[in-house]
Specification:
Length: about 900
């Protein structure tokens, strides 16, 4: 293993022991290490070296499995500090050593020196000098080495170092925890923040045993998203390594074993953790893939928090170079340029069961068929997707039993890291096509499709269910005036209704499917005048107006075959419904006006969206584009507004404060509707318990309402605010006001029976009136902490003082003492007063200013250095 050099000796005596060299792989304890040689064509040989003449405390050992009477053995005092002293000093370093003797059991004892020769640091002497080891009993100081050990020990005793210090050393004994009662909760409690750890053992390239600090949890961590070749053990037989298993294990060992690392805990599997190990020199997960030591696995890649696309790219790198486990890899045979094989496109239309129309970056449209599946029906939407072409199915002539087919581009289509074909198959909405053994024209994820189908069959999903297939009857009331009149009152009372855009006739005329009412309607956008397209009427040909095609294309790209919300206000003589359409929080009428593709119609004046429409139209006019290309601004006579004076209204209502934000806003629930929320939550959780969501089946979209599993393991109503990746979805809990970042596996569709139409979102945002929030981060944190201590999760009294952009400004009182919370912050010097000029507020403003002067006089918090606003108020963002 290690190189050896014979040291010269006198001819009259025995030759001194040979000097050998190696690299420290592992520190077993304070007096034992494992040394390895240099790798040559595979993992190198290794040997255990025990330090001569000294003894350090033993480390803890877990009770042997299968022996119920056995007990865990704890650390001996100063055993772990001794191990850590050697670990930090020696791991990965070159040492030289001499073997002085070997006992009958074959254990070797010797001297170890840091560096290439015996001039380096003597490790045994360093341990003894630090009081982390002592000389073995019965060893007499009859040679220079033992004399130096005795001197080091005497000096450590005099200095009261380590084991010679006062006390019994119990503070050095770790409280090791070998099991975790609730692994899922343990993972969630760390919120995907890095945890300091030491890698204690490497089982194979992608599975390690880690000591989490500072709580001393000893856990098994499987690297998220990958799997390395393993060591298989037959019953009562030896371990048999899979190809490259030993090499992959050495690759991980040489980089991580007994190194200080950080681990991001991402999920749990029984008592094992799924996570990512971070080392200053790189991410071991990506390195293993790039070197061909591992493959991506779909079942855990979804929880990987550092970008699944990086893992896929690293795996592709190894495949293309046929490294190690990919030495026999054969690439797909389709003769396509890379730009034609993999591209990002926008779904414009779902044609039928297995085909979608996408818009390429060039503006061209292309029909894509999903690879290797045969679905009866496809549920789709207009959004950005990733397309990877797997093969081109050539055109085929018709036979007696099979119709003719044109050439088809078959591909894997993914959205947010989710394979659409696999999702359809897993729900039982499609079946997998079987191929001949020699037919390579199949999906690049064919194995995953087969596994998904097996799960669907086992669980009786969709097509594989033994129940009768339900018949869906849809009533088409487009243009039917009588039926439309019957439906109108119902749709008006419903407020916002869910719908799917089936077809776009023009920029402002659409056909909608209402799933709850199971009917098709023609829908006209209210409040706008959109350019008309060309129409052939009896005896008249109506030419298209300018920008009508652009408006139609704009509406198609935004809403075609997507889920929307509509508000029906009225209907016309032809039985077409008129109203407002919203998609992801965007009002389509406002958006068309904003993009200069429509003008505001006078009928919008009575609408609550009139101001938004006017604002959008004014901005479009200034740009002078499209329908406003020839617009000339007319001079407007200036009118001075007259402010009406009014009395301050003090009508306090009871609320329950649920969340305080970092900018000192807060969310409350109305106490009067609290019982309704409790009943809804109880009903929703019972419903979820009886029909739990399928993990990973929900694809979150921004602005959509959903259910989210909080850290307490319970489901709550939420709204998706942002989707970074399947593993990072930003959600807002609509009934409590707090926010969280979750993987999509902890989200599900909100059952309609518990939607916001049944009970509106219960958390309402407010801000304190009459105060200025400090701009300084530390000062603001002090104020927030004070408010959290005083009112979070408590009942208070709330009065709306004035409306402002963003949210209403209010005063808040404690429910018991009726004390003003904002005034209390001013008295403590945690915030400053916002002086308002309105006459109705002068009395309360005076009270606030008097409290501020008292805080300044007492030099409290913000005022501890006097009135800092005198000379540099603007610089610090404050104003009087």
């Amino acid at each position: 293993m290690a190189s050896s050099a014979q040291s010269g000796g006198s001819s009259g005596g025995s030759a001194p022991p040979a000097l050998q060299r190696g690299i420290v792989k592992m520190v077993l304890s304070g007096c034992a290490i494992i040394v390895r040689g240099q790798p040559r064509g595979g993992p190198p040989p290794e040997r255990q070296i025990n330090l001569s003449n000294i003894r350090a405390g033993n480390l803890a050992r877990r009770a042997a499995a299968g022996q119920p009477d056995a007990k865990d053995i704890p650390d001996e005092p100063w055993g772990f500090p001794a191990r850590e002293f050697l670990r930090k000093k020696l791991i990965g370093k070159e040492v030289c050593f001499t073997i002085e003797y070997k006992n009958p059991q074959g254990r070797e004892y010797g001297m170890v020196y840091l560096g290439k020769d015996t001039n380096g640091e003597n490790i045994a002497e360093s341990l003894v000098a630090e009081g982390l080891a002592c000389r073995r009993e019965g060893i007499r100081a009859n040679n220079p080495e033992q004399n130096r050990l005795a001197e080091c020990e005497d000096q450590a005793k005099m200095a009261k170092k380590g084991m010679w210090s006062e006390g019994n050393g119990s503070h050095t004994i770790r409280d090791l925890k070998y099991t975790i009662e609730n692994p899922r909760h343990f993972v969630d409690s760390h919120h995907q923040k890095p945890v300091n750890a030491i890698i204690e053992h490497v089982r194979d390239g992608s599975v390690v045993r880690a000591l989490l600090l500072p709580e001393y949890y000893l856990v098994t961590v499987m690297l998220s998203g990958i799997k390395c070749p393993t060591f298989r053990r037959e019953l009562d037989g030896p371990e048999t390594p899979e190809p490259f298993a030993a090499e992959a294990k050495f690759f991980t060992e040489s980089r991580l074993l007994q190194r200080d690392v950080q681990i991001i805990l991402e999920s749990s599997h029984n008592q094992n953790m799924l996570g990512t190990v971070l080392h200053p020199n790189g991410n071991i997960t990506e390195l293993l893939l790039k070197e061909g030591f591992a493959r991506c696995v779909d079942w855990s890649i979804a929880v990987y928090t550092r970008g699944a696309e990086k893992l896929r790219a690293a795996e592709r790198f190894a495949k293309e170079r046929k490294l190690r486990i990919w030495r026999d890899y054969v690439a797909p045979t389709a003769n396509l340029d890379q730009k034609d094989k993999q591209f990002v496109a926008k779904v414009m239309q779902v044609l039928n069961a297995d085909a979608i129309v996408v818009k390429l970056n060039s503006g061209d449209y292309k029909t894509i068929h999903l690879s290797s599946i045969r679905p009866p029906r496809l549920e789709g939407e207009s959004t950005q997707v990733n397309v990877t072409v797997d093969y081109i199915r050539p055109a085929s002539a018709a036979t007696e039993t099979i119709p003719a087919f044109s050439e088809r581009t078959c591909a894997t289509v993914t959205i947010g890291g989710i394979n659409i074909a696999e999702a359809l198959v897993s729900k039982g909405l499609a079946t997998v096509i079987r191929y001949r053994q020699d037919d390579d024209q199949r999906s690049s994820h064919y194995d995953e499709l087969l596994a998904a189908e097996a799960r669907a069959i086992k669980n009786g999903k969709g097509l594989h269910s033994k129940k009768e297939v339900p018949i869906h009857r849809v009533a088409d009331i487009s243009g039917d005036t009588q039926k439309a009149k019957q439906f109108l009152p119902f749709l008006q009372r419903a407020g916002r209704s869910e719908a799917v855009v089936e077809y776009v006739f023009s920029g402002s005329r659409l056909k909608l499917y209402l799933p709850k009412e199971t009917c098709l309607i023609t829908f006209l956008l209210a409040g706008i005048e959109c350019p008309r397209g060309a129409r052939n009427l009896p005896g008249l040909v109506q030419e298209r107006e300018p920008f009508s095609e652009e408006a139609t294309l704009f509406t198609k790209e935004l809403v075609l075959q997507r889920e929307v919300e509509v508000e029906v206000e009225s209907m016309d003589k032809a039985g077409n419904f008129i109203g407002w359409l919203h998609i992801d929080g965007v009002n389509l009428s406002v958006s068309l006006v904003e993009h200069a593709l429509s003008k505001v119609h006078f009928t919008a004046e009575r609408s609550s969206y009139y101001k938004s429409l006017l604002s959008a139209e004014e901005a479009a006019k200034q740009k002078k584009e499209k329908v406003w290309a020839h617009y000339e601004e007319q001079p407007v006579e200036e009118v001075s507004p007259v402010l009406e004076e009014k009395e301050r209204s003090a009508s306090y209502k009871p609320v329950f404060v649920t969340e305080i934000t970092d900018d000192l806003h807060f969310y409350v629930q109305d106490v009067e509707t609290g019982t309704q929320l409790e009943k809804l939550m109880e009903g929703m959780r019972n419903d979820i318990a009886s029909h739990p969501p399928v993990e990973g089946s929900y694809a979150p979209r921004r602005g959509e309402f959903c259910i989210a599993k909080f850290v307490d393991g319970e489901w709550y109503r939420a709204r998706v605010e942002k989707v970074e990746s399947p593993a990072k979805v930003h959600v807002f809990y609509i009934d409590y006001g707090n926010r969280e970042i979750l993987p999509s596996t902890r989200l599900g569709a909100l059952p309609p029976a518990f939607s916001t139409r049944v009970l509106p979102a219960q958390a309402t945002e407010y801000a304190f009136a009459f105060i200025q929030v400090p701009q300084d981060e530390d000062a603001r944190t002090d104020a927030v902490d004070s408010v959290v201590r005083d009112i979070q999760n408590t009942q208070c009294l709330l009065n709306v003082e004035h409306l402002s952009p963003g949210c209403p400004h209010v005063t808040l009182q404690f429910a018991d003492s009726k004390g003003d919370v904002g005034l209390g912050l001013v008295k403590e010097g945690l915030v400053m007063v916002e002086v308002r000029k309105e006459k109705q507020f002068q009395k309360v403003i005076t009270e606030y200013l008097n409290a501020q002067e008292s805080a300044k006089s007492a030099r409290l918090n913000l005022w501890r250095y006097g009135d800092f606003r005198a000379d540099d108020a603007d610089e610090f963002g404050y104003s009087r």
